[in-house]
Design a protein that fits this description.
heterodimer; A: 3 domains; about 0% strand; B: Neuraminidase; 7-stranded mixed sheet
Chain lengths: ~600, ~500
Amino acid sequence: MNKIFNILEKSLPFVFGFCVLLFFGLVYPHHMHYHEQFQLFLTTPDFFLEIAAKPGGISDYLGMFLTQFFLFSWAGAAITALLIMSLQWLIHTIAHKIRPARAWFALSFIPPIFYWILLCNENFLTGGIVSILVALGAWLAYFYLKNTTTRRLYVMLAIPVIYWLAGGSAFIFTFGCLAVEWLRDESSRGRIMTTGLSILIMGLCLFTAKVILPQYPFARLIYGADFFRFPKTYPSGVWVMWLFCLVVPLSHLMLPAVFKKTRNLALAGIVTLIAVAGPGAYMISINTDTAKEDIMAYDHYVRMQQWDKAIARADRKAPSSPLSVACLNLSLCKSGMMSDYMFRYYQNGPEGLIPTFARDFTLPMVTGEVYYHLGFINTAQRFAFEAMESLPNYWKSGRALKRLAETNLINGQYAVARKYLEILQHTLFYKAWANHVIPYLEDEALIGGHPEWGNLRKHRTKTDFFDSEQEKDMMLGILLQQDLTHYMAYEYLLAYCLLTKDLERFVQYFPLGSELRYERLPYSYQEALLYHWSLSHEDPFRTVPYPISEDVMRNMATYQNLYLNSSNPEEVLKKNHSGTYWYYLHFRK
Amino acid sequence: MRKILIIPALAAILWSGCTADISKAELRTAPPQIFPDYCEVTVPCNIAPMHFQMSDNAIQMLVTAEGADGCVIQVKTKKVVTFGQSAWKDLVASSAGSGIKVTVHAKYREEGWVRYEPFTIHVSPVPINDYLVYRLIAPGYEVYSKMGVYQRDLTSFRETPLLENTLIPGNCMNCHSFSGNHPEKMSIHVRGELGGTILKTGDKIEMLNTKTDETGGNCVYPYWHPSGEYVVYSVNQTIQAFHSIRERRIEVIDLASDIVVYHPQSKQILTPDLLRTDAFETFPSFSPDGRTLYFSSSQFQNIPEAYEKIRYDLCSIAFDPQTGAFGDHVDTLIHAAAMGKSISFARPSPDGKYIMFTLSDYGNFSIWHKEADLWLYDLKDGSLREMKEVNSDDVESYHSWSSEGTWFVFSSRRLDGLYTRPFFASIDKEGNITKPFLLPQCKPLEFYNMNLYSYNVPEFITEKVDWDLKKVEKALNTGQRDKVEVRR
């Protein structure tokens, strides 16, 4: 039996770690990218001093250091798995030090599983788990001190250090050590003194922190480390986590360590394991937000210009949120497929083409990509800036800074572009890119010859107007008018008309594409033109003046027939015609 | 005196290792390209050490800074020329009224040592006010991240926050203003969930809600009356619009604006009819004698379509501080609209001789106008002059005077075209203006390159603001705001 327990104790953490790795690597890979893009880790001493200048700041710094590797999702998954495994190992080892009780081994998985659940929320940050690890590490070190005076001295001295390193997670250390001291020391005087002094020191730490850092609210200094992206929110999950980290190891004091029958020991172990793993797995599954992961995936593909991957993802499951549809439409357009196939996918109106600006950090980042590729360089610049400035924890963003360097470069504002590039030179993963871009500064020929920046320079807006969320078609029209070969502007302008169901404008703008010389008329244009023609002509199939294919004509005839003669045309047409513009026109709101 | 002797002695030891090299240095007739550009600038005798570094790829520098009385500092460095605080203090003190001769030897990988033409840092015997208060904020659009109002000791590098939005996350603060450069009386607005105007008078902290039905909005741009008995504000309804071409980014436009005067003692607002018209009135300031109110005024235009036609003149109206009564007419001092220009931030000098203002092509939010420059209006003879000595090809915008009127600080985007930095210059009794210098920093190039915040609304104060932040935090968080009333 002992052998089985030995194997279990050794293998289960690895199995667990492997599950975490697979979860974040396969189910949540784009959550990793999401974390990375909303921070900017600099390798400068000043950056360290800035982040480390508050309780828990060093944990935040370490968390940010690790998060920069999340640019590669499997690296992010591996780091997260290692952190969660370390948490389990520390809890188990501390519990074992308190009182060896093999039957309850599975309890050591409660805190890591709970943190895994927390990490399903994209706003829980890596610095939080680092801070807990620091506190638990310090608690573990405590068990190696045998001399009572040394041990107590260690606790007193370590509290302020742990508080500075890990913020509020120092509560775990303080109360964990106190609980053990309370049990070891049999004299009530010793107990009271140790407890009183430790609590006093902890209180002094909090008080001193407020005196040193008066520009932080007291509640924030209690948490210290940035567990959560929104500093105004103090999630109760953190307190529950701290409680688990304390209660689980200390529970070994209450639970029976020795069983008369080996069978009972095994039974207790198995029941505990099932009791932890079952609800744990269930909680993880209900907290897994695949809808958000989906949006993050599209955003990532657009960021990396992996248009084919975005389209392939949509082929597996059509996106429905405005952000993911906007990413899909951009991918389709960049792949030359939008005007043919956009209605083969779910479309949710003009918001799925160019979403409306919102004061948050996610939406402007995604929408900015659309503006950037269209050539609205100032707007793309504004959206990148706003996304970065909207980060509630006041961090900066590597992705946004990169985009700002690009937009300033395209706009010929080289001094600012240089500033951003020089900042990016102090990063691990943007440095090579920044080094590559610096020679472009003030070299008009080099920029002009660049496949992306040169093209965007050619297409960018040269007529001044104010951005208008209500008149995106006008903005697109101006962009197109200044260069009638601007394929994307044309496609977006017509797509905008189609999505707003404004067929009059569609027909009015349609001739502007004459210089684009399509080999054949794109399907959605054929469908829209034929339909529009049919509204005012009796025999549209014969008289339509546009080059409409036989297939489209046949399709429309069938569609018309079913539409007019079915009691529930939406359902009837869904099967074979939901990918047509007509279906969108009639049934999508 | 001992220090003065020791420093050269120590430096001479360090120096001796290089003398063999630099004796063969190639001579250049031009001064070195350094950052910040301190060549031939004039600095106050109490300014912080003016560390600098080469703008080019020099790998080593040997610098001699020689004061008027022979006091010398020698620095050998690979990167930043750093002067010790006390040695620098002695050097500037001993050079007050004359200058510091700076000789730079720079070593290059290929060329070896080069000796540049020495340059002078002129030292004015007039000290600058000890503190500069400014807001640090990213030069963004509608959203703001971390920001704060800070006070910087100009005699050292010490910067301390007055109020940061880490304390009140998600809120914004702006328009800090002091009564006559003294920190005793101050006002700051907070915008957002915990919005209100913080008014500090001595140790007393009040939180005001300055919005009234009659005035239609919150008080915005402030200026204290020299007596400290009144604060004049503009009340602006502002929108932002975003340009689409590379040369322009943002337009900040007033839909409506008026001027009101707040009397803290009675918590009443005075609303002169002549300043509450359909025209746009903004950026008010009082004359040093407190008997005239200056402001910018533009004729009404349809917004936003006619935004480029809004041009502000410099106007004035009489004010009686005893009664709070206003004159019966408005004078137009500078008819800028007729010149096709627009005036913002009229700031009278403490001696009442000049009004310094920002001149741009149109509108009032000149920080987004590349053409914006500083101009000087002579109140005695009514003459106008462009302050060419301090203007650049980029934006010069907000400015303020030191308490005695020799020094002034102004915002400029000349370094990179976007991030606003504070520059200082002086003007003497004859109206001679000196070459401006950038706010000194410990590692200037690294600091200004890595810094992602603009210096907003730089204001001099004579001493450090000392306020009870706990009281401020409590006042902000209680949500209680004292209502102000309009005096009828």
